[in-house]
Every structure is written in C-alpha cells, then in structure tokens.
Amino acid sequence: MALTKFFNEMTADDGSVRAHYASYAAWLNETPPDRIARKRAEADALFHRYGITFAVYGEESGTERLIPFDIIPRIIPAQEWKGLEAGLRQRVTALNAFIHDIYNEQEILRAGRIPTEQVINNAQYRPEMKGVKVPCAIYAAIAGVDVVRAGAGEFYVLEDNLRVPSGVSYMLEDRRMMMRLFPELFARHKIAPVEHYPDMLLNTLRSLAPAGVNDPTVVVLTPGAYNSAYFEHAFLAQQMGVELVEGQDLFVRDDQVFMRTTQGPCRVDVIYRRVDDDFLDPKYFRKDSMLGVPGLLDAYRAGRVTLSNAIGTGVADDKSIYPYVPEMIRFYLGEEPILNNVPTYMCRKPEDLAYTLAHLPELVVKEVHGAGGYGMLVGPASTKEQIETFRRYLEANPEKYIAQPTLALSNCPTFVESGVAPRHLDLRPFVLSGREVQLVPGGLTRVALREGSLVVNSSQGGGTKDTWVLEA
Length: 472
Prior knowledge:
By secondary structure, this protein is an alpha+beta fold. It contains 14 helices and 23 strands.
C-alpha cells in the first residue's frame, strides 16, 4: 500500500478551504497577526501557571516542560465523527470480549483464529487473572485509541491503549484554553462539548462497582508526583471529586481494600489505577514495588474491589496482537470492521521478516512492547547507519518487532516559529465502557511540531490541538 499523498485537514487539493473549516478560516484571515501572537503567549503563561507539564525523557533542559499547545483547532464534521464513533465502539467492544475470553473459555484460541502462543506467551498476559470475575465483563473501562488519517482521507487505527491510557486531561485543558482565549469562536460555531467527560468517567467507574455496592467509593491510584502524567491523575481526581491516593494510603484487610483517613479506615470499592500491572501488588508481581498495595489481587479475585483498567489488559494492546483485532471483531461480533488497521508485517514470520529486511528504508518498524514513540525506526527519516543498526536488531530478535508502511499522515495548519505551516497529526479519542459504551465527541489531537516528523507523541516533543466536532 503506497500512501504518499498528504491529506490536509483544512484545505482541499485545489487550495480551497474545506466546508467545515470555512467559518474558522474566515475568522483566521480577518484576525490581526499581533492578536494571535498575544493569545499564544497568554496560552503559554496560563499553562505554566496551571502546571500543565509533561516529562520529555532525554532532554538536557530538565525532565518537565510545558506541553506545546497550538491554537489552530482540528475540526471534524458531524457525519465524519458519526462513522468514526461507530468504529471505535465496535473495536473496543470486541477488545473487551477478547480479554474476557482469553482469561476464561479461550474460544478464539481453540478456534485457531489467533495463535495460542502469541497470547499465552505474551509478556502482558497475566495467568493470575484466569477465571477472575470482572463486573460486566469489562476489562478496559477506559481506552485510548490512536487514529490517523492517510491517503485520500481514510481513517486507520494505529494502536489501542488499554492499560493506563493518558492524555484526556490535555483534551479538556485545550478546550478550556480555547474557550477562554477565543470565546467568539464558540459563538459562531456549533462545537460539541467535552467538559462532561469527568462526569462520564465517574459514572462509568461507579457502574462497575462490585455486586451489592450501591454507593461506591472511587479513588484514583497514582504512582506519585514524579510520574510524567501526575498532573492528569490529580486533575481527574479533582474533577471527579474523588480522592487521589498512592499505594501507601491503601491497605487490604479480610480481602477488602481500605483507605487511611483522619476519621479512620474507609472502604474503597473502585480504583481507577494509573499504576502499571507490575507494580500493583508486591505480593504477586514485583516484590520490590513501593507503589502498590500488598494483597490487592486477593481482594480483586474475591470480587471485593474493582480495578479499572483490569490487570492483564495489556495483552490486547500489544503490537503483536494488534494485527488480529479485525479478526476479533468478526469472531465476537459477527461484523466486518468499520475502521481499518494499518497493514502490518509480523517479523516473527519468515516471509514478513524477509520483506521487512528488504524494504527497511520504506517502513516503520516498532518493538511489540514499545510505547511513546520509543524503540522504533521510521525508515524514510533514518540514516543508513540507523537502518543497518535496526537490521541487526531484527535479525537477532525478529519476534520482538512488527513493520508497517510509512503512512502519509494527514496534516493541519499549525503555528510554528516560521509562521503557519502544515504539521502531521493523529487523534486519540477516549472510549468509556461500563454498562454502556460511550465517548465524548473528539479526543486529544497530537501534532508533530518538527517539520516532516511523523512522531506526534508528547514524550517525543509533539504538541496538542483542541479537537472540534461540529454538531449537525
């Protein structure tokens, strides 16, 4: 699949402005550049004041910096969002069915639709979860699905984030910032709201409380202030009106989880955990973990507490499992996938490895357990030396890698140092699964600020935009 043409979100091939951007483009043209410059400076100052930061690993200037915010929004028309939303609901429903199946009946494995060894031998598969009853059979209550547009404008799912997906706080803060800076834009556009996401999240978590609990106590479990996404943990706890806790604030007694408070122990029913599996319970996982709660898995197995997301969800968002998601949709739902995967070469297969090695300068190669834009090769943007280094990695451990065509990610006008220029972007909508599957219109748009870069991750220096879904 050769996708070399860049789809521009705002302008068509003939240079005309797309209909859903027309009103915004007119406003942008009539707004003095000095006002835009002032508003951009104001946004930077406000983000700094609010402490909206992100860790950028490998930078010498320090571990924390402002997450760059661009004031040109990404706009999605109502009909386009409707199709995207349907595809996201379908995909996450199938992923939850898959996780439930592999920890229980394993029907999809017995049917030979996915190789058993790909699941059972996966580093993210947790045998401790076999047979554990999970409320509503929902393992991934919060999913962040990374979607890109390529070619003539078709959407592709790049990856599924089902463990502890992050970024929703930036979606909310970007909207808050745009409404503060440019209230007139919200008067002339019918933009679907996103501010109710914390209420939807809380209702989703409460709906998954253990059986018999009518007024559940919900907490957000964070690794602590040194975690790169700590701002988000604190923000979501505050927005939901629940306690933000660390492992040391909780303890397990008689297979129940309690929170230490000044009034004495308080039972906890639902934990929105932002701590990775390995660190959740030193009794069963990493013995040296100071971030988790000893005995938490016992309480979970006993059905006395709900963890969102569940332990062991990572097996379903591993890049070696990603190629099988369309098959999951067919197997569990009896439907054809609405959203396409990116064609993927599984390097553990000899024929796929041979093709990958022969076409390294054209492909993107990723570690199956990698995340955040690390451990990957973008062939067209790499030097010969980098390509040859990756060739050695592939030949030594082919099972650790997948390869994909270099998608011509869509771009959108973005304010950069040289002025307004096109930059590549993606979209991470957040799908909530409780007693129903729902999502707010839009998501986090991430933009690659470096010219020509296809890596949009904030941890790699990318920025964010507000995402507008227009109401019909």
